[in-house]
Design goal:
Blueprint lengths: L5 E11 L2 E12 L3 E5 L6 H9 L6 E6 L2 E2 L11 E4 L11 H11 L5 H14 L15 H13 L5 E5 L7 H17 L3 E6 L2 H7 L2 E6 L2 E6 L1 H7 L8
Parallel strand pairs: 3-8, 3-9, 6-7, 7-8
Antiparallel strand pairs: 1-2, 1-4, 4-5, 9-10
Helix pairs in contact: 2-3, 2-4, 4-5
Length: 237
């Protein structure tokens, strides 16, 4: 896996049907940090994540990793990025175990026994080993989120992107997701980029928070800095 020091978003601009969603956005994500993009629904948070992973191409701007354009450099193939969808995006026709190992199975990475063993190890770490042979339709929303995280972790990413990981979760499951992200921060070298509208969740996990509004980053800093900003998004409802 390639090491890197930072991801820089330079002047990212994206419009849909004449409406500008991101407007000359600049932001930097440091290696091994948990960086939260905080914003209201519809502000372009998911668009931003999908640009980083290459699902959406910016109209203007670049995504740079150590001064190399991630979507042009041949070196990008040595970076492992994994995306956790808001909906979890599990395949309902496959068991939890098969959902987790699907990429390794399709690319014949390791033996079947090694793939299964790795999946069980990750499931155990996430506290859902007993769900391995169940179907996604039999799982709660919180368990589905953890299975989606397990599927991302099995490919050993060095950049992990979460799209609203606590959406529709109760406070207990939100706390579990927070603990998982913090455990990864403390025990791995994974860079984690999280988009959310949940302010308390952001405070519980972030090394750095950036508030996204009006197509650009309004505030960036640690939790204390962001609280001092008195940005309108932080005001009690």
């Amino acid at each position: 896996m390639k090491n890197f020091s930072s991801i820089k978003l330079e002047k990212l601009t994206k419009s849909f049907n004449g409406k500008t969603v991101l407007d000359q956005l600049d932001c930097e994500f440091l290696n091994k940090e948990v960086h939260v993009i905080l914003g209201k629904s519809g502000t372009g948070k998911s668009v931003l994540l999908k640009m980083i992973i290459g699902l959406i191409v910016p109209d203007i701007g670049r995504i740079m990793i150590d001064n190399e354009d991630i979507h042009k450099s041949v070196e990008k193939n040595s970076l492992v990025l994994s995306y956790i969808f808001q909906s979890s995006a599990l395949l309902n026709s496959l068991s939890v175990l098969d959902n987790i190992t699907i990429y390794l199975d399709e690319h014949r990475i390791g033996t079947k026994e090694e793939r299964v063993s790795k999946a069980y190890e990750i499931l155990s770490d996430l506290g859902i080993e007993e769900a391995a042979l169940r179907m996604p339709s039999d799982l709660s929303g919180g368990m589905r989120k953890r299975v989606a995280i397990a599927r991302s972790l099995i490919i050993s990413p060095n950049i992990l992107l979460y799209d609203e990981p606590t959406a529709e979760l109760d406070p207990i499951n939100t706390k579990i997701i927070s603990q998982i992200i913090n455990n990864l921060k403390n025990n791995s070298s994974i860079t984690q980029i999280v988009v959310t509208h949940d302010i308390d969740f952001a405070y519980s996990i972030a090394d750095k928070i950036s508030i996204l509004e009006n197509g650009n980053i309004a505030v960036t800093g640690d939790s204390a800095d962001v609280k001092k900003s008195n940005n309108a998004i932080l005001a009690p409802i």
